[in-house]
């Protein structure tokens, strides 16, 4: 920097450095420079998503800039846009949701080693963590106390909040960027970044495999991935659905049995028989009905995140030494492992590709369990806004 006067500014690639001389000492504030990107955001919990422009930081040395090609619609996007998790994770407005991102690298910072312009890559639910806490050291960045979510987290670079994938581009530290298998349809890969890893991770953790009887509750975005993974891991898979019209699809997706949950006789037949049940339901429901289907030492893992607390009678767990567990997405290394597994076993989400202009309609359909089985937004549609 040539000038050492108070307030002197020097712009290097991607950062503005401001130097102030105070009491003989020089202090430096590093502020990334930004560029404008098209996006869809909601201005309040009652507002629909609408076209807008946001600031993204210019890539700094460890950053990868990505042109977003597809972004899946997760039910968490809807919970967040409508501030349904206000008690645990209040929404900051405007919100740009989206954490199932696939795209093409456009630029990389000077210190990036894993990616180059033109690579097909993906970003999931996290864009940063402290990388030094015990959880980060165990590759469990999702449980880092300083983890940055892809949207609605404090943006450590720009201030304000992070903006997600309903946008034409995103800039992410290379550690949180994933490599895509080259053989898969990318519209169907996008949902793997949340629905995929959220089901893969607990199923792996709790040993789902050959000889195990596994239940999947709710056949939506997460549920249909759980069926595909359960099948790929060699388990016997039973689907529990409130939607009779999904029965045939459940078999096609890989289920061995399908129970329409309004039929209590069918439910009774399965009492005490499951090793593992993954509950993906997004709304309040009776989990006790499913705990009672577990055998001795059986495990029910909640990944669905209804806003209201769920009732759990103690005796349902005590009798049979049953476990009730939870799970959140997965770490970066495990997400890469899941993507590689999907490449090898040809696993993708079943998607309905929509233009961004249909996003509000898609949210209404999601609320009616009317999605087969994930919406994937074709981001080329944003160019016309
Ligand atoms: P989704 O596509 O809307 O699927 C949810 C499914 O739950 C529906 O398709 C429906 O399946 C069933 N369902 C909905 N309302 C119900 C009700 N009142 N009673 C019983 N079943 C009902 O949602 P998703 O994207 O898969 O997400 C599911 C949940 O997981 C959401 O709460 C989301 O926020 C959460 N999530 C958690 C994590 C995590 O890390 N833990 C990650 C992503 C998402 P049927 O038609 O088959 O009954
Ligand atoms: Zn999600």
Kindly describe this structure:
It is a single chain. The chain is α/β, with parallel strands linked by helices and 385 residues long. The protein has 3 domains: 1-32, no CATH class; 35-194 and 346-384, Medium-chain alcohol dehydrogenases, catalytic domain (Quinone Oxidoreductase, Chain A, domain 1, Alpha-Beta Complex), CATH 3.90.180; 195-326, NAD(P)-binding Rossmann-like Domain (Rossmann fold), CATH 3.40.50. It is 22% helix and 30% strand. The chain has 11 helices and 20 strands. The protein has helices at 75-81, 134-137, 186-189, 195-205, 221-232, 247-253, 264-269, 288-291, 314-318, 332-345, 359-367; strands at 8-12, 15-22, 25-32, 34-41, 50-57, 63-73, 101-108, 120-123, 126-128, 148-149, 169-173, 178-179, 213-217, 236-241, 257-260, 274-279, 294-302, 323-326, 351-355, 374-378. The strands form 5 sheets. Strands 6, 7, 8, 11, 12, 19 and 20 form a 7-stranded mixed sheet that branches. Strands 15-14-13-16-17-18 form a 6-stranded parallel sheet, with helices on one face. It has a 3-stranded antiparallel sheet with strand order 1-2-3, with no helix packed on it. A hairpin with an 8-residue loop joins strand 4 and strand 5. Helix 4 (195-205) crosses helix 5 and helix 4 (195-205) crosses helix 10. The radius of gyration is 22 Å and the shape is globular. Residues 1-16 have low confidence and may be disordered.
């Amino acid at each position: 920097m040539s000038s050492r006067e108070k307030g002197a500014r020097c712009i290097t690639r991607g950062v503005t450095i401001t130097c102030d001389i105070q009491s003989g000492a020089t202090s430096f504030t590093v502020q990334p420079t930004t560029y404008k990107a098209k996006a869809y955001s909601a201005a309040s919990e009652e507002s629909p998503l609408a076209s807008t422009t946001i600031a993204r930081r210019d890539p700094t040395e460890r950053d990868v800039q990505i042109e977003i090609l597809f972004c899946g619609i997760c039910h968490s996007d809807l919970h967040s846009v409508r501030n349904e998790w206000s008690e645990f994770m209040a929404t900051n407005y405007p919100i740009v949701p989206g954490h199932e991102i696939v795209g093409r690298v456009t630029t990389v910072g000077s210190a990036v080693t894993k990616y180059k312009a033109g690579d097909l890559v993906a970003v999931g639910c996290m864009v940063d963590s402290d990388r030094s806490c015990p959880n980060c050291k165990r590759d469990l960045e999702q449980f880092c106390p300083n983890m940055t979510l892809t949207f609605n987290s404090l943006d450590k670079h720009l201030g304000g909040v992070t903006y997600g994938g309903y946008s034409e581009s995103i800039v992410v530290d290379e550690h949180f960027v994933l490599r895509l298998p080259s053989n898969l349809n990318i519209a169907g890969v996008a949902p793997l970044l949340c629905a995929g890893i959220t089901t893969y991770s607990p199923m792996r953790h709790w040993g789902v495999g050959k000889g195990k009887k596994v239940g999947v509750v709710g056949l939506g975005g997460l549920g249909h991935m759980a069926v595909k993974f359960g099948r790929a891991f060699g388990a016997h898979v039973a689907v529990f659905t409130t939607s009779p019209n999904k029965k045939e699809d459940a078999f096609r997706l890989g289920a061995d049995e399908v129970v329409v949950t309004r039929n209590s006789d069918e439910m009774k037949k399965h009492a005490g028989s499951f090793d593992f049940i993954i509950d993906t339901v997004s709304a309040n429901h009776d989990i006790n009905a499913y705990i009672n289907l577990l055998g001795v030492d059986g495990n029910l893992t909640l990944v669905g995140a209804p806003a209201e607390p769920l009732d759990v009678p103690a005796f349902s767990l005590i009798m049979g030494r049953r476990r009730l567990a939870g799970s959140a997405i997965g770490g970066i290394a495990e997400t890469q492992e899941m993507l590689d597994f999907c490449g090898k076993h040809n696993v993708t989400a079943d998607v309905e590709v929509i233009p961004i202009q249909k996003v509000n309609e898609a949210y209404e359909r999601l609320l009616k369990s009317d999605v087969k089985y994930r919406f994937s937004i074709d981001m080329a549609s944003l160019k016309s806004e």
